[in-house]
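Aggregate trends can hide what the representation actually does to any particular protein. For completeness, the protein is quoted in full, as a sequence line and a line of structure tokens.
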Amino acid sequence: MILQPTSSSLSLSIGCFASLLGVHPQTALRWCRNGTMQEPARTLGNHRRFALPDKKKGIAVGYVRVSSHDQKGDLATQRTSLLEKADMKNIHS
């Protein structure tokens, strides 16, 4: 989708959007590329532009990581725990 500039369409660069999520822009870019996050609209210059999140809906991102390859098995446990907590708070994907 190509964005047409209008006064009513407010969108964010990948850096601003990543800052809202509390992650590095390269992380947000990787999420777009691997399908973790929906691919945003593009400008005529082919730059990604993310829609400003709806204040009523908000945004929620679950992020799990480990510090070494030996701990890779812990990712599933962390993911399960994160999903259970999100479910308890009625946060849906």
User: Anything to note?
Assistant: The longest strand covers residues 48-51.
